[in-house]
Amino acid sequence: MRASIKAGVVVTIVLIVAGLAVQQGCHRPVGQSPVPETAIRRYLIPPTRLPFVNAEIAEIKVGGQLRLVSSIYGGKNPGRIYIFDPNTGKSVCRHLPEGIPGAYMLRTGPDGRLYLGCGNGSLAVYDPKADRFEVLVSGKMRGITWGGCVTDSLVVFSANPGHACVYNWRKRKLLKVFKPLDSAKPTALYAHNVLECPDGKILLGVNVPQARFILLDPVTLKAESHTPAVLKGQNWTRSLTFLDNGRLALLCNNEILILRYPSFKLSRRIASPAGRGLGRFCLLGRHIYALLGPGGELYRINPRDAKSNWKLVSKGFIDDGFGAILHALSDRYVCALTSAGRFMRYDTRSGKVFRRDLDSNGRMGTNAMCVVPQ
């Protein structure tokens, strides 16, 4: 609509009202409006690049072919997963079940299905053979599911503020809900890293306001909080990775720390090259590959060799070293995906980089108002 303001200045007022949902190409108001229907003009929100939530990349088999999967946040529309070929970048999308805005945890189970920890605290599963979703757990947690893992029989997933669920996917049964999971004080609110340990226990790397570890026994379902000396006073860790049965690597305060397991005693510190900012890292073969910012260079180091130094392997691998996730693929490739849907694959044998923009255009939930001079 147009309106004259003071000295005849004409502006266009664009109202995108919360509560309008895009369904099959049209807006639908939730409540009654005092404005007569004949006086209302509606405009479709134009498609845009949907943001990948930069949580995880998973591997699944579709028709016997290896594919990668990641997720975009769609608000109320709902979210989507994108299934793409790592060799060509060709992708297809699948809409998440109604009411799920996005999936931050993506883990493939021994049954070949993709388990998704969702933005509303639910647990869903995608069966690539049947090409359908099923919601397994809902209403037990209300926050965003930041991390989780799938074992031979369990799915352990955690949502803020520090809650967690244990689900037996073989028996299709919810076994336990922790509220909170962390027994230490102050209680950590986010479990961004969840992985199975070599001894079968579940390790949760929890963050904010104090970073610590929680070990969950899969038999007794008892959780123990551990705050290693090296983490006291720290509020954030990420990229927890077991190098072998007795050593755990993680990123904390711009360093990679190597801890002994299960004592969590410090074994080695690996500083970033020249104090540069360390982004995500992944383990491929003997080496840790890490993104550095600004600039998005890809470096590698052998964490098992105390004499090993950082080596630049790909300059300008991505645009921003902090805005991407990494995934080790087939003992050969280091894959990266940015929030804008830019996919990169570095070949550790040839040194070549393959790049492709994933087709992730669409509409998402919007709540905004602006006045634009005309």
Largest sheet composition = 4 strands, antiparallel
Structure summary, number of beta strands: 35
Output the structural class: mainly beta
Cα(first) to Cα(last) distance is 12 Å
Specify Rg, calculated over alpha carbons.
23 Å
Could you estimate the helical fraction of the residues in percent? under 10%
For the biggest β-sheet, the strand order reads: 6-7-8-9
How many helical elements? Answer: 0
Integer average pLDDT? 88
Provide a compact summary of the structure.
It is built from no helices and 35 strands. By secondary structure, it is mainly β. A hairpin with a 3-residue loop joins β15 and β16.
Q: What's the topology here?
A:
Layout: E1 2-5, E2 9-16, E3 21-23, E4 26-28, E5 48-49, E6 58-62, E7 65-72, E8 80-84, E9 91-95, E10 103-108, E11 114-118, E12 123-127, E13 132-137, E14 145-150, E15 154-159, E16 163-168, E17 173-178, E18 190-196, E19 202-207, E20 212-216, E21 223-226, E22 238-244, E23 247-252, E24 255-260, E25 266-271, E26 277-284, E27 287-293, E28 297-301, E29 311-314, E30 324-329, E31 333-338, E32 342-347, E33 353-357, E34 361-362, E35 368-373
Task: Summarize this structure as a short list of keywords or feature phrases.
374 residues; mainly beta; four-stranded antiparallel sheet; 35 strands
